Amino acid sequence: MTESTAVQEPMTTLLELLDLSEADGAQTDEEIFVGVSQKQPAQRVFGGQVLSQSLIAAIRTVDANRPVHSMHGYFLRPGDANQPITFGVQRLRDGRSFSARRTHAYQNGVPILSMIASFQVPDTGIEHQDTMPLDVPDPETLPSAAHLLGSIDHPVAQSWAFGRPFDIRHIESDIYLHVDGNHAAHQGVWIKTIGTMPDDPNLHRAALAYASDYTLLEPSLRRHGISWITKGLSIASLDHAMWWHRPVRVDEWLLYLAESPSASGARGLNTGKVFNRAGQLVASVAQEGMIRLPDKSSA
Fold first, then answer.
1. How far apart are CA 230 and CA 177, in angstroms?
2. Cα–Cα distance between 155 and 162 in angstroms, integer?
3. Where are the extended beta strands (E) located within the chain?
4. How confident is the model at residue 152 (pLDDT cuts 50, 70, 90)?
5. In this model, does residue 178 exceed pLDDT 80?
6. The one catalytic residue among 37, 52, 54, 213
7. Which of 2, 7, 277 lies closest to 161 in space, CA to CA?
8. Which of 43, 82, 201, 240 is packed most tightly, with the most Cβ within 10 A?
9. Given pLDDT bands bounded at 50, 70 and 90, which one contains residue 298?
10. Across residues 146-161, what is the average pLDDT?
11. Per DSSP, which regions of 137-219 are E strands?
12. Beta bridge partners of 288
């Protein structure tokens, strides 16, 4: 595989995922769209995929002058990566400045995700933001997932190394195989698409939702020295919230800082901030995930 082919295939997949069809005009009390699924080694739909597709479906029903500013979703069932997904959008409200949409993502006639998104006509008002840390190494100095995992002969390692449309570079050591250094409940990664995206701002917002699900639960794992290959680890996203604050391009480096303020009840809460390289806070995210380990006392 040439370098250009390795870059093009995941990018083509990302754009295909976000190019929903209109189900040949089929309608209920919802507006219906259909999306393909990205193949996964574990055969389970990646949460970021269904989030981004649900968002695109909602965007298709809103006036172009109202960009999305927030979404709140619940993962209800695991999705099958070997099947397409049907998206039903309900128009909840269209006010003078704000619109609201509810999207259900369906497989086999039942919802696998339920999401509400809010859209707003651009406006002006008060402004402030958290400050981006200055003592962060440049992404060009950090190893990529392809560098760290590319030589490992395992389908998940190969998928994470070469099948993702995003380049992900950990500032602290990664937790793919083991957790080095301080077991802190926070971390930072640089992310960007491995190729150039079209100029459509909605695609960039949706692609950021897609990527935001990659590493958001890692602070909960890092805090307890749990790597992704920990034997018996069972982990799943339960919900996902996201707020877009400012325009964003995902084909330029973004600093994704995350922390876990609490873990209990086999759940870990994680929050994140996304800065562009100019130091602007472009988005915030929050997610709770199920994190289960084998009960060693009964082993």
1. 8
2. 10
3. 31-35, 68-75, 85-94, 98-107, 110-120, 166-170, 186-193, 234-237, 239-244, 254-264, 267-276, 281-292
4. very high
5. yes
6. 213
7. 7
8. 240
9. very low
10. 91
11. 166-170, 186-193
12. 269
Split at pLDDT 50, 70, 90, the class of 284 is: very high
Tell me whether strands 239-244 and 254-264 are parallel, antiparallel or unpaired.
Answer: unpaired
Q: How far apart are CA 118 and CA 245, in angstroms?
A: 13
Q: Tokens 């950090």 — which residue? A: 142
Q: Could you state, in order of their start, the residue ranges of all structural domains in the chain?
A: 3-123+138-298
Looking at the DSSP bridge assignments, the partners of residue 98 are 120
Which band of pLDDT confidence, cut at 50, 70 and 90, is reported for residue 214? very high
Q: Tell me the three state secondary structure of residue 202.
A: helix
* Mean pLDDT value of segment 41-53: 93
Rounded to an integer, the average pLDDT of 220-247 is 96
Q: Is 159 a catalytic residue?
A: no
Annotation marks residue 213 as catalytic: yes
- Whether pLDDT at 113 is above 70: yes
For residue 234, indicate whether it is catalytic: no
Percent of the chain that is helix, strand, coil (3-state, to 5): 25, 35, 40
pLDDT at 174 over 70: yes
Is the CATH code 2.40.160.210 the one for domain 3-123+138-298? Answer: yes
Q: Which two tokens stand for residue 106?
A: 């369906």
The CA distances from residue 29 to 89, 150, 214, 239, in Å, are 9, 47, 33, 25
Considering 38, 53, 237, 284, which one is annotated as catalytic?
237
**Chain position carrying tokens 């039903």:** 88
Containing 183, the helix (H) or strand (E) segment is none
37, 40, 284, 287: the catalytic one is 287
Contact 204, 252 (CB under 8 A): no
